[in-house]
Amino acid sequence: MVLDLHTLYEALDVAEEEGPVRLMAAARREHYTLPYLVLSVLRAEGLPMGPAAAGQLRRAMDRDAFYRALLTETSAQAEVTPIKGVHLARHYPEGVLRPQGDLDLVTSTELDLWRAVRVLAGRPPRDIAVSVFGAAERHLMVALSWDSEEPLVDPHLRVDISTAALTGDFEVVPVRPALPGDPDLASLLCVAEERLQRPFHVRDALDVHALAQAELSVDDIVQAAGDYHLAPEVGELMEYAGDRVPLGGLSGLGDALTGPARRELDLRHERRAAATEAGGTLTALETGALLLGMPLGVRARSAELECSRVDVVGDEALLLTPVGDYLLVAEPLVDPGRYQAAVAAWESLDGPR
Fold it and tell me: Would you say the pTM of this structure is higher than 0.70?
């Protein structure tokens, strides 16, 4: 893979004569992780940098080391699989940092999810957020975060652990718990899946550029994109990346996905038309809609939980977990009276606070 300053200038649409200052400015505008990548390429090409730039790059390297240490510690006590970032980094040139905003892990069982969370919570996090989604099989996602070394400059550190590798859009793209066995093919699908939550950005194009060096079959990608309900997103990703970086053997992939993408969009239209209006929390639990956990607190119990359980109290659902308890809600803002009533119900449950 060729990932040098020329590639970055092209990808970020900056004329080379404008120099690295403009390149860094464009990287900052594009995505918060991209300046770290640019700095690592500048260092690899021998450009001098002062203490501020060197410090920023050093903190990014420390961030990468922190995530790798967490992965090692967690893997020793739970069955976890890292997705996307760790595998993509292997395709970047030696000495070039593929910066990660967070560490994404997947477990095949809820038991392993909570084992992993307990390990990670050994480094006390600033926050543990829990979400529930999926039907007929219920899935969970837990996000733990820590302050960065320079929280006014660098984003906080975060690990997302889920029992589903691809969560979909919680509407017409379904949950897909497991990824293909080929990590390169799985990584491409994960990058494309991001489009369900946000627009693509230049790091996505650079990831495709990196994966273009792998021995991926176009036929296998087309088949997987259809099987995993991502043909429109993979096609859009190829178009986006092709305007910014060389695609090598993947250059014909966009055209091959035209038919599968059209079929998937038709299916989504049918699913959307057949969908019923969302009801309250209990209906959302039945239909598998996304529910967010609003923290209630941590309490002692007569018996410790190994996995989570849902207690229904009236029209509310309380999620009890090994690391804390939550009111399940469909929206981020909740009426204070509703929350206080949930706290009262929670305090009446089994075991003292």
Answer: yes
Looking only at the bridges linking them, the beta strands covering 81-82 and 127-133 are unpaired
Long-range contacts of 236-242 (CB under 8 A, 24+ apart): 236/192, 236/195, 236/200, 237/191, 237/192, 237/195, 237/200, 237/204, 237/208, 238/208, 240/200, 240/204, 240/205, 241/200, 241/204, 241/205, 241/208, 241/209
Model confidence pLDDT, tens digit, residues 191-215: 999 999 999 999 999 999 999 988 8
Nearest to 104 by CA among 125, 124, 88: 88
The model's pLDDT over 155-179, given as tens digits with 9 standing for 90+, comes to 999 999 999 999 999 999 999 999 9
